[in-house]
Amino acid sequence: MSTLATDVAIIGGGLVGTSAALALRRSGLSVVVLDKGYCGAQASGVNYGGVRRQGRPLAQIPLSQRAHAIWPRLKELIGIDGEFLRSGHLKLARTEAEMAALETYAARVADLGLDLELMGHNGLRERYPWIAGHVAGASLCPGDGHANPRLVSAAFARAAERAGAHVMEHTPVHHVERMPDGFHLSTGAGIDIKARHVVNSAGAWAAPFAAAFGEPVPLGRIYPCLIVTEPVAPAMTVNIGAEGGGIYARQVERGNCIVGGVRGAPLPDADFSRPVGAPAISVMNRAAKLFPALRHAHAIRFWTGTEGDMPDRNPVIGFSATTPGLIHAFGFSGAGFQIAPGVGEVVADLIRDGRSTTPIDAFAIDRFVRTNEGSGADLMTEPQQRETSQ
Amino acid sequence: MSKKLRPLIVGAGPAGIRAAEVLANAGIRPLVVDEAPLGGGQIYRQRFVPDERTPRDLYGSEASKATALHQTFAALADCIDYRPQALVWNIGPTVADIAVDGRSRRADFTHLVLATGATDRVLPFDGWTIPGVFTLGGAQVALKSQGCAIGDSVVFMGTGPLLYLVAWQYLKAGAQVAAVLDTAPFAAKLNLLLGLPSQPGVVLRGIRYAAELVARGIPVHYGVAPIRVEGGARVTGIAWREAGKESRLACDAVGFGLGLRSETQLADLAGCHFIFDERDRAWRPERDAAGRTSVPGVYAAGDGAGVAGADAAELAGERTGWAILQDANLPVDTMRIRLLEKKLGAIDRFRSILERAFPFPTAWAAGLPDDVVLCRCEEIAVADARLAARQQSVVEINRLKALTRIGMGRCQGRMCGTAAAEVLASSCGRSLEAVGRLRSQAPIKPLPLDLTGEEDAA
């Protein structure tokens, strides 16, 4: 059994873990990234691909803005643009009540730099004639967009590796504890890691690592189900969401539309999930109604993935409340893709400087212990990726 | 007891029909779901619009088998529930999602017989996406079902018994067969003589097809490696290499295939354990001699469970019917079961001989030019797969899919999966078995977005 000594051991090679690794390497720290499978093969790689600030709880906006600055620089950071498209994100209101909710949200974030544009039914029909049905109005966030999670997540891992991070795939962490001389991690790969810092970015699998340090968290799982259509002529010029959830959709450059809004179901091995017939068809039907261009299109594939879910829909980000040197960053509750590269930088800040200039207090791990109710961060608005449960 | 049994049979080909027959005779009413408008499967496909052709014209020496199967299925009409033109697009535990008549319906089942058949196994080559290039099976369907040929001057290329059968059927139907290009050397065919004692009828029939083709002056070339199909909007010719020299021939259509590949997606969705079948060079659901898979209540029969041909499919389908009765503690004909298993064993041994006579071109994938399209749905070149193996250390087929989009398109890897695995294996230096198999996901085939929601099929 050999031992590898490092400044930082990162458990979980998703977008958060690998973007943290990349940022840490730029600060000159040695990094080991451990993933039980392939890096970015879970929520980071199989999510919808929305790169969206609009609709996030207010507490997430500063973090989201930090990530917003990273997305256009992907090519320079990780070598590919990840099919990132600053298309804008259009959130539809199907009723007057939903429109009122969009207006309230717009007022609350007015000073936060999202530059939201509200429009009524007529304005919407004029600008987006490809959207049909009884839509009361919408809110556009022009700077938001979408990207390909499958490519972005894998490229962050490779970029971290090129920057000198030691990326160990198919290497589950069996045990982690803090000893007087630092953290000791034992893996299934016949190699132990000794680290000054540990980052718990294990996504839906993060709870046991938090519990190991006396910090149990109410981390659940969701299984979003996405539907991909055959390529159709370009029509959907923006990333679409809906107030109240139920549908979200985007069209990629190749012409395929990706539609979400429902959930799959876990298999007996709850690490894996499958689409479920009835909800999948209902979201296909919703898309066909809302987008006439898709009425005669076919769905060619579905996919599902496993995502960590917190009861207050906010992630856990920040120092452990029990263990010096331990940092948590998980539980993004179906809305982690856009902010993940920002979270990676914040994690690197915390390790390098002991603090981050980006406010993250609302995401402290002990918030459940303190209040029993979560962070109290804004619960009024629905993150776009909320699915209607089957 | 038997009233509670609700078997679902997927596929109304030789296997599915024979399974249904056994169950119906035992007083059990299965639900038979089939994608085709009429029963018979690919091999005994019926004409949708009647014409003057006789069964003899359509099925040649197999006419009596085809007619018997069609008659059996017709006689079952009152004893089964039958849904033609219906797609089982998803399987969950004890429930199937079926798309039929623009609706998706749910069907609960106690037993599931997967008689899903096979499609052509293909590898790409330069020009394989030019209009006028068909699979051998596709060429046969055009003839059998629609009564038309794929071109005015057709070259058939590849390996497998179907190569000679389809060429012969085209000849019989009056089409112009420009040449037969066999990717295996002539010497391989001598293996067929080993099969004479056990399956004389099959062997002699095969020899007759080849002999008639030659007698009619149709050039047959052996040991052929394809170089390219030429043409733009339509095939204009084919060039190939044979014993080191290049030849070319004008034609306006090419039918090609390299044997068959099992349709296994539903077995995957049903949770069946898969094994790598060296003879088929493919993964297939593991099954016992009776067709039982690793999942209780799920059975697999016919070419969908490993390629063995139509005769074996009838026997194996019948055997799974008996297996369901056995597993439900209902009376069975043990003599018949023993006979079925004996016959299936003999065919299985013959299959190994056939495979030696019509070997898969194992070096084809490694020799493909970089710019040939591998995944035609997503337009991904062979080079992209090789690059992923080289630069991103990809050694597993699902990872290749995630990083390159190969297999993500309309066919979901049904057409390109074989080629992707062969190219990946040759690029990363692993065995075909080691690079694994594409995980199946519902829907197994495209579904219209405006499909109407669920209701019970029963």
Report on the structure:
The complex is a heterodimer of chains A (390) and B (458). With 390 residues, chain A is of the alpha+beta class. Chain A folds into two domains: 2-49 and 150-219 and 310-371, FAD/NAD(P)-binding domain, CATH 3.50.50; 85-145 and 221-308, D-Amino Acid Oxidase, subunit A, domain 2 (D-Amino Acid Oxidase, Chain A, domain 2), CATH 3.30.9.10. Chain A has helices spanning 15-26, 43-46, 61-70, 74-78, 96-108, 121-127, 149-162, 207-211, 277-290, 340-353, 367-371; strands at 2-11, 31-34, 50-51, 89-93, 117-120, 137-141, 145-146, 166-168, 173-179, 182-187, 191-200, 220-222, 224-229, 239-242, 248-251, 257-263, 265-266, 273-274, 298-304, 307-309, 316-319, 326-330. In chain A, strands 1, 2, 8, 9, 10, 11, 21 and 22 form an eight-stranded mixed beta sheet that branches. In chain A, helix 1 (15-26) packs parallel to helix 7 (149-162), helix 1 (15-26) crosses helix 10 (340-353) and helix 3 crosses helix 10 (340-353). Chain B has three domains: 2-119 and 261-354, FAD/NAD(P)-binding domain; 122-258, FAD/NAD(P)-binding domain (3-Layer(bba) Sandwich), CATH 3.50.50; 365-428, Orthogonal Bundle (Arc Repressor Mutant, subunit A). Chain B has helices at residues 14-25, 55-59, 63-75, 136-146, 161-172, 186-189, 200-215, 265-269, 310-327, 334-357, 382-391, 397-404, 417-428, and strands at 7-10, 31-33, 81-83, 86-92, 95-100, 103-108, 111-114, 118-120, 133-135, 153-159, 176-182, 220-221, 224-231, 235-242, 245-250, 253-258, 260-262, 274-277, 282-285, 298-300, 373-375, 380-381, 447-448, 452-456. In chain B, the strands form seven sheets. Chain B has a five-stranded parallel beta sheet with strand order 3-2-1-7-20, with helices on one face. Chain B has a five-stranded parallel beta sheet with strand order 9-16-10-11-12. Chain B is 33% helix and 24% strand. Chain B is built from 13 helices and 24 strands. In chain B, a hairpin with a 4-residue loop joins strand 21 and strand 22. Chain B is an alpha/beta fold.
